[in-house]
Specification:
Number of strands: 2
Shape: elongated
Number of domains: 2
CATH class of the largest domain: Mainly Alpha
Structural class: mainly alpha
Helix content: 55-70%
Distance between the termini: 49 Å
Number of helices: 8
């Protein structure tokens, strides 16, 4: 019985680690990505910040809050993490539709959960979206929502 529990715990740990690796790969490239992965993904997934669009000052407040909660980073690392978050998830940053998790599609683009799940399934079964019009091929998605948010999307 102990062996079964150990193997189950190991399998769950590996699944979580693989999910974390996949999340890290889906983050936009750029200066600071490695630090964000090291510092932020140690405690939570990317959905925690990908679903937000904050100013640099607000990202700074969030990062310092995480430091107060136990995240480990020095002052120079904090500045790099804040700059990365502000650049990629700032008030005017676009959603990378081909890598965005459900929470980002829902909270930033305003899609319903069912629409987000349909986008994720379609994205998995087909090649990457090339432009916003490709989303109109997704069964169950509201075309008026897609067109209204097309300026907030990147491919």
């Amino acid at each position: 019985m102990m062996r079964v529990l150990f193997l189950l715990a190991l399998a769950v740990s590996l699944a979580v680690a693989l999910t974390g690796d996949d999340e890290a790969k889906a983050l936009p490239a750029g200066a600071g990505k490695e630090l964000v992965v090291k510092i932020c993904l140690d405690c939570h997934g990317t959905g925690h910040f990908r679903g937000q669009r904050l100013s640099s000052d607000d990202w700074s407040d969030k990062v310092y809050d995480m430091i107060d909660r136990g995240a480990k980073a020095n002052d120079d690392e904090i500045l790099v993490v804040v700059a990365y978050l502000a650049k990629n998830f700032g008030k005017d940053s676009k959603v990378l539709v081909n890598t965005a998790p459900l929470v980002e599609l829902k909270s930033v683009l305003g899609f319903a959960v069912a629409e987000c799940e349909a986008v994720l399934a379609y994205r998995k079964e087909h090649s990457a979206f090339q432009e916003w019009r490709d989303l109109l091929k997704v069964p169950g998605i509201d075309p008026t929502k897609v067109e209204a948010k097309k300026g907030m999307m990147a491919f």
